[in-house]
Amino acid sequence: MAAGDSVEDVLDGYPTLSREDVLACLQYASKLAAHRFTLVKSA
User: Fold this and answer.
1) Model pLDDT for residues 12-43, shown as the tens digit of each residue
2) 11 with 23: CB under 8 angstroms?
3) Any residues with CB less than 8 A from the CB of 23 and at least 6 apart, and which?
């Protein structure tokens, strides 16, 4: 959706999803974006 797709575009591309599924994903992403993460390199 960051590329400009609408909820309808996503639903057209993934017909097994519901509008509620997409909105739940957006809400989850919003909550994740509110947190700070530190990336740690693994050996």
Assistant:
1) 999 999 999 999 999 999 998 898 878 888 87
2) no
3) 7
